[in-house]
Amino acid sequence: MNKGLGIFVAAGLAAAFATISHAEELTGTLKKVKDGGTISIGHRETSIPFSYYDNDQKVVGYSQDIALQLVDAVKAHLGMTELNVNLVPVTSQTRIPLLINNTVDLECGTTTNNKERQKQIGFSTNFFIIGTRLLTRNGSGISDFPDLAGKNVVVSAGTTSEKVLRQMNEAKGMDMRIISAKDHGEAFVTLESNKAVAFMSDDAILYGEISKAKNPADWHITGTAQTNEVYACGMRKDDPAFKKVIDDQMAEMMKSGEMAKIYDKWFNAPIPPRSVVLGVPLGDEMKKLYAAPNDIPLQ
Question: What's this model's pTM, rounded to 2 decimal places?
Answer without folding.
Answer: 0.83
